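stuck on whats below:

***
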Amino acid sequence: MASHTPPRIFDPHRRMAVRRRMLRTQKMLDAPRYLLDDMIEDVLERLAFLRHQPERALVIGDVGGVLGGRLESGGTQVTSVEPGHGFDEEAPLPDNDLGLVVSLGTLDTVNDLPGALVHMRSALSIGGLMIASFPGAGSLPALRSAMLVADGERPAPRIHPLVDVRAGAQLVQRTGFADPVADSRHLDVGFRSFARAIEDLRAQGHTNVLAERGAPLGRAARALAEQAYRAAAVDGRTVERFEILTLSGWRR
């Protein structure tokens, strides 16, 4: 009999540690959070456009509680959960009567993405909506190029494989959602240095959690990466692109 166990691409323990570090960093007033803020703004715009005002919602990865607060101000009863605190998206969700389930920046690092989507659908009541946003294919092109330069002829696994729009659309449809939608938008951010780019990624919980990771960059390799990143700069800043993939669907 064929095994249905998903491949182990990401290390769950490393993932939790990265998110816990991010949660501590996000308590600082000057912590970067532009990726999460962009996702939250997009979710709110979608809900307003759809005129969807659920009675009960589950929000995953809402660091700081901004989205939950906005939903609660509209009368929604919100439960917020966080992978860094042990919430497991690859297990059945603790409810099955929700009008809305939202995941913010977390599903790109689960090993069983189809399973996570199935669990989200199962948690919805009839007429409920799922929205999931996370970095998708095409993100971090400058960093990827710099890593290839640093590693030379033996590229190491350093940056995550990412889902593109087509694969995302197929996943939402295959996991049983009605009116499935997958779309992508980009967010461009300029960095003055390689180090600042890594610092921002670390502060937002988007660093390497691969199960099979490459060895840390040595001093010489890091210098090559910094040089390549700097060479891509225009007017002193290297523009990095984040492609934000959003998946959505209904339970009918």
